[in-house]
Design a protein that fits this description.
With 260 residues, the protein is an alpha/beta fold. Helix content is 38%, strand content 12%. It has a four-stranded parallel sheet.
Length: 260
């Protein structure tokens, strides 16, 4: 069991056929409910109304940070912010924009123990970050400090990353990256304040470097704001010998609100 999987990792894991049969039986007894409390859907997920409101990033995006472009500028093109200040992670992709519609289910997973949302987000990432997943040698989540993991019981990024790795048949490495000191919440901090808050907070333990060296690592998190946390994680992975680090997140704030 992985530390980042938290207490949820203690449960017995049934086989795929048994899980499928169990889901079919449960759907008969308890028909699927919309994860956003909307009208009942045909299968587990968001209601049609919620789907219409979420701004999915399906169009052309910056190759560096995943922000949306109004029109295609060609493959590999980066926004001015990425050109001016490249980050440690090579590329980033987000499934949707972080706004009043997407915020609620993301926070429900994070703070309301709604682990049933993790498989949905994993499917979103599989689609939005398809190229990054294809090139990934392994998938790892942004870690929580042990103290926060104990109080929250699970790492939401690990729940999403594990589902994505299983969905796309990629090695899942939940413990190659460690948050070695407890950091303050990033909420309300400026871009520079976020960088200072996580500076030196992440490390690859010496006993785990062989799992990272020479590999393309896909880092998974729930939300991308300034990129300070992901940048700190990427620096630690690269220092341990990773060939490249890419980033996949469920949602990202609008580029106009991201401090440099």
């Amino acid at each position: 069991m992985s530390l980042q999987d938290g207490l949820s990792g203690l449960s017995w894991k049934p086989g795929a056929q048994l899980k499928s049969a169990g889901r079919d039986l449960l759907d008969l007894v308890f028909p699927p409910q919309a994860l956003d409390a909307g009208p009942r859907p045909l299968s587990p997920g968001l209601s049609p109304e919620a789907w219409m409101k979420i701004t999915f990033l399906d169009g052309p995006v910056c190759d560096g940070c995943g922000t949306a472009f109004e029109f295609s500028l060609g493959p590999g093109v980066r926004c001015a912010a990425c050109e001016a200040r490249p980050r440690a992670f090579a590329r980033a992709r987000a499934a949707c924009v972080y706004d009043e519609t997407s915020r609620d289910p993301i926070l429900q997973l994070k703070h309301a123990d709604r682990q049933d949302l993790a498989p949905l987000f994993a499917r979103w990432l599989s689609r939005a970050a398809d190229g990054l997943v294809e090139e990934a040698s392994a998938i790892t989540p942004v870690p929580l400090h042990a103290s926060r993991l104990f109080s929250r019981r699970f790492n939401q990024a690990a729940e999403i990353a594990r589902g994505l790795a299983r969905l796309r048949d990629r090695p899942y490495l939940p413990d190659v990256l460690v948050r070695r000191r407890a950091t303050e919440s990033q909420g309300g901090k400026s871009g520079s304040g976020r960088k200072r808050n996580v500076a030196g907070a992440f490390v690859v333990p010496p006993g785990r470097t062989h799992q990272v060296a020479g590999r393309n690592i896909l880092l998974v998190d729930d939300v991308l704001t300034t990129g300070a946390t992901a940048d700190g994680c990427a620096r630690a992975l690269l220092a341990a010998g990773a060939a490249r680090v890419d980033l996949a997140v469920v949602a990202r704030v609008k580029a106009a609100t991201i401090p440099s």
